[in-house]
Amino acid sequence: MALKTILNKQTDFTGEFPVEYAKSGLWRFNDVSVDENGYLADSSGLDRKIELVNYLGTTASLQSGQKGRQIRININNPATEKTYLKVANDGTFFSEMGERILVGGWMIPTTYSVGNTYCPILNTRYGPGQPIFYLSLFAGRPRIMLYNASGSLILDQTTTPPFSLINGGVYFICTVIEPNNKNAWIVLGDKTSGISWVSPTYSFTGTLNPSCTADIIMGMHADAYWYAGRFDDWFFDMDSSLTVDDLIDYFNGSLLTNGGDMGGAVDALSVPGVVSLRETEGVYPTEGTLYTAPATCNLSGTGRVSVTSEYISGVTAVGPIETSTSDDLVHWSDWVAIALDGKLVSPNKAYIRFKVTLTTTDTSKTPRIIDIRLYDIPKSPYERIGFSRPVVLDSNGAWEAVLENAYNIVVTSEINGEDTLSFMIPYRDPKRGFIDSEKKIQIVDDIYKVRTLTDTKDSEGNLATEVYAEAEFYDLTFSVRKEEHKFDAETAEVSMAYALEGTEWSVGTVNVRTKRTWTSTEKNALSILRTVADLHGGDLVFDCPNRLVHLLTVYGTDSGALFAYKKNMKSIKRVVDTRSLVTRLYAIGSDGLTFADINGGKAFVEDYTYSSDIRISTLDCSSFTNPYQMKEYTEMRLAQYAKPNISYVLNAMDLSVLTGYEHEAWSLGDYVHVEDKDLGLSVTTRVIRREYNLQEPWNTVLELSTTLKNLGSSASQWDNVADSLEGTSMVTNNDIREMVPFNLLRNSRGDDGMAYWVNSGFEVDGDNGVSGSTSFKAMGVVNMTKSMAQTIYPANRSSYTLSAQIASENLEKLSSDSQVGIEVVIEYEDGTTETRFIDLY
Questions:
Q1: Do 466 and 484 fall into the same domain?
Q2: Do 317 and 407 fall within a single domain?
Q3: How many helices (H) and strands (E) does the chain have?
Q4: Amino acid 386: pLDDT
Q5: Is the terminal CB of the chain with fewer CB neighbours within 10 Å at N or C?
Q6: Are residues 30 and 133 in the same domain?
Q7: Cis? peptide before 161, omega within 30° of 0
Q8: What residues pair up with 352 in beta bridges, in sequence order?
Q9: Nearest C-alpha neighbor of 538 from the set 517, 554, 514, 558
Q10: Is the Cβ–Cβ distance between 537 and 639 less than 8 Å?
Q11: What was the pLDDT predicted at 797?
């Protein structure tokens, strides 16, 4: 999968003129105000600031516009205000004209400007020296004048567009001059109607002034003629690569783009390259929709869209994401949402634009879009893995070579494990030169990266190259360094999103609904993802073509495929292994945490379904800080460990490659049926590992099993401590030492009934006190929330300790949204609040 397009620049989201095509000057007028000398910034990088002349005491001001701010001048009486803009020429402005000169931008004229006979827009007739060009309106129609070195006119052309310029209209206007070809054009676009127009080609004789040192003046000529209205996003480019057609494309592409609209709900200006909801006096709107500038599409295969964003789960969100495509930037397909896996649904055309909705339920917070990416997934020359061949991809993800002469081609893949490719190719094969380290190799839809190349020569002088490649997701090992991070009662999606932050991968489908409170200490994305799968359960699936990571309760289907001796099974080996069978499983959490206090004093769980022997092991749960979740996790693992590991190794043939046997298809993770009368076998089990021989599908090796067993990284220090776990406290001695010896909660034990508490559903229990004779209790009720709350006003401290003695009986979650815990709402001196939830189940 190759990255086709990425939108991560301010202009991608605002529709402003691209800075790379305004190398000689770019005046966006996005300043908050003029500087102390009356100047506004130049965004070209050349620091050619533009001066606002005669602005004090006039209507001149920076106004909110559709592409950021605009400069407004001469609104009341141009003859008395006499405001204009000036860029002082240091003598180099026109020294290297090159093949093409562009000068233009956006304007919103008033009746004064379109109604008078002469209205200057941009000119060089104010000196010093002789002019080079003059762009103006003549009776409301665009006029271009060009000059030679002596100041004589070599072109004076007024043109009549198909629409009239009106008061308050928003127009894009640009002059294109080709000094060597001696041609000039005027490009004009009306934003309201969406109509664009190019003047006829105006040819001139003579030579354009090659030594002009005149200043650029906007909105004034000869201290007698004035422009009234607004200017926005004006640019100047010498030796430009843009053509008239490119300018029309820019205009058409900018029409819908709204990230710079200061009256809209989204903001792509405050932080360059980032889109958020637009803040007004500290408050964000609840929803806003971004329309981007068009980008290149033209996919060679299928497309996938990925949005890198920042959001707070359950509070802010980015999506849905819709796309529209076009071949001419004028006629666009209907908006359509991308598929759940990010696949592009819009038809494949030359250009694509994006529509993204941002939402928040807390108007003090906003989601953010960092970038939008379009990936090109080349269509493989092969539809099925059997008899396919490796395909080498170039740096853009396009096909470079099909390795027809490769042999011993084996793909080895395993559920929650490895995914590698190996093959041989003759050293003197003409396509050997396409293979290099880190080159991408495609097998049907899967992408691998070459890790090792081994050139060999045998005793008979035969030369060959052995290639070993790893699935593209292995690169997640080299992600940006991840710092220690705590997750409080979070679903797997949250942890996976954290792991994939800063990568080109996104979270795909997650149907594992467990919640876990744990601390991640892993340093890279892949390690965190492996840990998430271990803690939450399920199968981790990497969709390399779409850059998605899924976590599924079970990956695969009941394929209906049958493996039988003399049909498609050459040999079979069955292994029944009880070496790692466990019937009593302890767990050690963070800082020695156990679940004994919530499990009748037992720090272990037991399962004697298969064996009555006590066989003990210890589970390393050092990431866990919640005893309920640790017990749930330990029970999940014991369900696997308390029965024998039964596995089957088959040397089998993939019959689905043969015509008429397509129904015998199977994939990794699928359930298949195995029969062998001699061994008395008739069992449905799962493909957990395969070594698929692409060249010889009849020599494929399968490993089938009901489970994959792994006791994790049980630390050796806990291997022999089973007898000492029952009395372990959930609060460490260090925690106790750091406690503040003053209880800020009033009536914290229930001695005075419910005094000082705001109560909803709790009652005082007079029989089960801990430090006193009473306590608080609540009986759970379906679809009901019960709570008790108290507000305290402590003195300022750097830290506070929250402690409680908790007991439960027959506690059961009835939905994924159920919660048992302590919610703390902290109010700071500035009036802001922060809510933290301490999950207890």
A1: no
A2: no
A3: 8, 56
A4: 84
A5: C
A6: yes
A7: no
A8: 295, 325
A9: 554
A10: no
A11: 63
Q: Which residues of the chain have pLDDT under 70?
A: 1, 565-566, 570, 655-656, 658-662, 706-743, 795-799, 816, 829, 841
Structure tokens at 340: 């759940």
CATH number at residue 105: 2.60.120.200
Q: What pLDDT, on the 0 to 100 scale, is given for residue 62?
A: 96
Same domain flag for 238 and 275: no
List the strands of the sheet with 118-123, edge to edge: 39-40, 50-53, 84-87, 216-218, 118-123, 133-138, 141-147, 153-158
Note the pLDDT tens digit of each residue in 417-454: 899 999 999 999 999 999 999 999 999 888 999 999 99
User: What is the Cα–Cα distance from 577 to 66, expressed in whole angstroms?
Assistant: 70
Q: Diameter of the chain by CA atoms?
A: 108
For 523, the domain range is: 479-552
SS3 state at 492: helix
pLDDT digits (tens, 9 = 90+) for 704-727: 874 333 333 333 333 333 333 333
- What is the predicted pLDDT for the residue at 206? 93
Eight-class DSSP state of 722? G
**Which residue, 25, 29, 104, 89, is CA-closest to 60?**
29
Assign 598 to helix, strand or coil.
helix
CA distance 44 to 19: 6
CA neighbor of 437 nearest in space, from 448, 453, 426: 453
Instruction: Specify the CATH number for the domain of residue 541.
Output: 3.55.50
Q: At 606, list the tokens.
A: 């037991």
pLDDT of residue 779: 87
Whether cis (ω within 30° of 0) applies to the bond prior to 741 is no
Q: What would the two tokens of residue 492 be?
A: 């797997």
Question: Is the CB of residue 410 less than 8 Å from the CB of residue 14?
Answer: no
